[in-house]
Amino acid sequence: MDVKDGLAQVRERIARACDRAGRDPASVRLVAVSKTQPLEKLQAAFEAGQRLFGENYAQELRAKAGALGPEAE
Fold this sequence. Notes:
Blueprint: H1 3-21, E1 32-33, H2 39-47, E2 53-54, H3 58-68
Parallel strand pairs: 1-2
């Protein structure tokens, strides 16, 4: 399964859970954990609409976010 399909599945699960809970799916923020992931996978997630990433080390986050562009958080 590629990154785009994986994100689509997770977003669908979030939407179903929100529906069951009576919650707006737009109120949920999905954080993609980028620890140990190569930049290519992060770029694929970014291209699929993911903008919020989590990283263990600040220097790793800076380097990866810089490569993705100013829209990445």
